[in-house]
Specification:
The complex is a heterodimer of chains A (223) and B (402).
Chain A: E1 2-12, E2 17-28, E3 33-37, H1 44-51, E4 59-64, E5 67-68, H2 74-84, E6 85-88, H3 100-110, H4 115-128, H5 144-156, E7 162-166, H6 174-190, E8 193-197, H7 201-206, E9 209-214, E10 217-220
Parallel strand pairs in A: 3-8, 3-9, 6-7, 7-8
Antiparallel strand pairs in A: 1-2, 1-4, 4-5, 9-10
Chain B: H1 3-15, H2 18-55, E1 60-65, H3 87-96, E2 100-115, E3 118-127, H4 131-134, E4 139-142, H5 147-151, E5 156-159, H6 161-168, E6 177-180, E7 183-191, E8 196-197, E9 200-201, E10 205-209, H7 210-216, E11 224-229, H8 235-249, E12 256-260, H9 261-304, H10 306-314, H11 319-355, H12 365-391, H13 395-400
Parallel strand pairs in B: 3-10, 5-7
Antiparallel strand pairs in B: 1-11, 1-12, 2-3, 2-6, 2-11, 4-7, 5-10, 6-7, 8-9
Helix pairs in contact in B: 1-11, 2-9, 2-11, 2-12, 3-8, 9-11, 9-12, 11-12
The chains are: A alpha/beta (223), B alpha+beta (402).
């Protein structure tokens, strides 16, 4: 499903060139549950952004669902993000001025779904995540765990093939963190491919597979 | 992304910073209002002049001595002497041209006028019997100068309202004898109030027969010949007739100028157009400044919402979606500002005449439409740069922005 071949990423700064990823080869199969581990600054977030089509590799080939995305235009990448990928962030990244279900429906706006259908779908998704009582609340009125569940609902709303989570429990207490991981495990059982970036061993151990990155290269688990 | 959603997002953003949005709009409000107001003052002035000239009679030609061509050309000034216009010129114009209703030989001067112990220096106009009819003047009491007054050079006069009030107060002036220059004149009429028309205060003039004025000012040279043409369609023919007649009498030299009132209106209209354009142009600069205000605020807004842009992009918003969202916001600002400007201009044009008496305004529909479209254009023009900037944000950097 995800095939990375010799992916490199460098940032050219005024004085130095920083090589963040120095040749990553990676495969993630369908319905996999993969945890990406590594010390901070190892490049795991950058890897996740490239997998999520938010960023482009400097060189290398990336096949997503059999399609080479390295040569896609910005608009095509936006469409891929919209339809195939759901993001979950450490800091939730909800839109603070929108109530919960409005946040959840946002991806559907960009796929041209009509307002009525959006509302029904968004509320159904919140219900699935046990948040039907919170649909009309603003993010600031929700607990961290609830906010992250709204974010997961938003990530799932367009029925993506892959969920990409960047330290999803990093801002949560351990009990809420456990809840989120349980949600991921259940989604994985339903057939969603999940890639989680984390540096917490307990969370990584819940995944089916652990990949370790260090200094921009793969240390273990990439195949 | 559907339009309703874009508009909703813009509305949320504008209402979450009410004061800021209002102040930004104020720039456009003032710009649009001043453009419309200045145009409406220009239009009002034009309508005013048209009306005033209309109230001084229609289809009027005025012949003055000397050639003052508006069209330019070569006129050797010193080599020829300008022959004055005389009483008989007017008589013959009337007799010879079938297009001319009447020609009034007019003498104009200033003289001392006295009654009892009251006296003042006054404008005195020597006219013939039809002048009042041609100029739409009427008497409040008494009568006009008659043809027999003119023929016999009878010393009679008609007083303007102000003159009458100054000399007689509330007393009856009819039949009284006033001294103009060295002679006694009998008051046969008092003018109705006419007021100041195009800078001439008709209430401050004393009218006497032209023949009497020749004696009073000891001259036979006319100030002008005021001619009424029978109909508007005959004006050109009448002008040609007058030219022929006068040239024959003036040794084939065209040492006089025939002006039509319509031409004067046209010339003034042209001047007013230029003035209006210049003023509206200056006002448009303030609209431009308002536009820069919009751009400034939009840049701030884009920066503040960097993270939102990143989130929306991560969720699948295309560059175009982001561009439209911010563009709609700036256009909304400018259009609301434009509407406010139109309302303000409408209000001012209703209220202004109460405070400034001599400020005729006339709201022109075209200026409202132009100002509104211009404000929309300002919103687009000054909105494109910030919106484009927003749409090109790198999603990763935008997401990391604090």
């Amino acid at each position: 499903m995800i095939v990375l071949k010799d992916i490199k990423k460098s940032y050219i700064l005024p004085r130095v060139t920083v090589d963040v990823l120095r040749g990553i080869d990676l495969e993630v199969a369908e319905k996999d549950f993969v945890a990406v581990m590594g010390p901070s600054g190892s490049g795991k977030s950058t890897l996740l952004h490239i997998i999520g089509c938010l960023d482009r590799p400097t060189s290398g080939r990336y096949l997503l669902l059999g399609v080479d995305v390295s040569r896609k235009t910005d608009n095509e990448l936006a469409e891929i993000r919209n339809k195939k990928i759901g993001f979950v962030f450490q800091s939730f990244n909800l839109l603070p001025k929108l109530i919960a279900w409005k946040n959840v429906e946002a991806p559907l706006i960009y796929s041209g779904v009509s307002p009525d259908v959006r509302k029904i779908k968004a509320r159904a998704m919140l219900e699935k995540l046990g948040l039907s009582q919170r649909a009309e609340h603003y993010p600031s009125e929700l607990s961290g765990g609830e906010q992250q569940r709204v974010a997961i609902a938003r990530a799932l709303i367009n029925a993506p093939a892959i969920i990409l989570a960047d330290e999803p429990t990093g801002n949560l207490d351990s009990r809420s963190g456990k809840e989120i991981i349980d949600i991921f495990k259940n989604l994985n059982k339903e057939g969603v491919t999940i890639v989680v970036v984390t540096h917490e061993k307990e969370i990584a151990e819940e995944a089916a597979k652990i990949i370790t990155i260090k200094d921009g290269v793969c240390q273990s688990g990439c195949y | 992304m559907d339009v309703i959603e874009i508009i909703r997002v813009s509305r949320d953003s504008l209402t979450s910073n009410k004061i800021r949005s209002l102040l930004t709009m104020l720039g456009v409000v003032i710009g649009v209002a001043s453009v419309i107001m200045l145009v409406s003052i220009g239009e009002g002035a034009r309508a005013y002049i048209g009306r005033e000239l209309g109230s001084l009679g229609t289809n009027i030609l005025i012949v003055v001595p000397g050639k003052t061509s508006a069209k330019g050309g070569f006129h050797p000034p010193a080599a020829t002497t300008v022959r004055k216009l005389v009483y008989d010129d007017a008589v013959i114009i009337k007799k010879r041209s079938r297009h001319v209703y009447d020609a009034v030989p007019l003498i104009f001067g200033t003289s001392k006028i006295k009654y009892m112990n009251q006296s003042r220096d006054n404008s005195v106009a020597g006219v013939t019997e039809t002048y009042f009819e041609i100029r739409n003047l009427s008497v409040e009491s008494g009568r006009f100068i008659s043809s027999s007054d003119v023929d016999s050079g009878r010393k009679v006069c008609i007083l303007g309202r102000t003159v009458k009030k100054d000399l007689f107060g509330d007393k009856n002036a009819l039949g009284a004898l006033v001294t103009i220059g060295d002679s006694k004149y009998r008051v046969i009429g008092v003018m109705e109030k006419k007021g100041v028309t195009l800078g001439i205060d008709f209430d401050d003039i004393v009218f006497i027969p032209t023949t009497a004025a020749q004696e009073l000012f000891d001259t036979d040279s006319l100030f002008n010949i005021t001619i009424k043409v029978r109909s508007a369609s005959e004006i050109e023919a009448a002008k040609e007739d007058i030219r022929q007649i006068l040239m024959k009498r003036h040794a084939n030299r065209e040492d006089f100028t025939i002006m039509s009132q319509d031409e004067m209106v046209a010339v003034m209209g042209k001047i007013l157009n230029i003035m209006t354009a210049v003023l509206a142009g200056i006002a448009a600069i303030s609209l431009l400044v308002g536009g820069i205000g919009i751009m400034n605020i939009m840049l701030v807004s884009v920066r503040e919402r960097t993270r939102e842009i990143g989130i929306r992009k991560a969720l699948g918003a295309k560059n175009r979606d982001i561009l439209l969202q911010f563009l709609v916001e700036s256009v909304t600002l400018s259009l609301i500002g434009g509407t406010g400007g139109i309302l303000l201009a409408g209000l001012l044009s209703i209220v202004a005449p109460y405070f400034v008496e001599f400020l005729p305004t006339h709201l022109a529909l075209w200026s409202i439409i132009v100002a509104f479209l211009f404000s929309a254009a300002v919103g687009i023009f000054f909105g494109v740069y910030p919106a484009r900037k927003a749409s090109l944000y790198d999603p990763i950097k935008a997401l990391r922005y604090e």
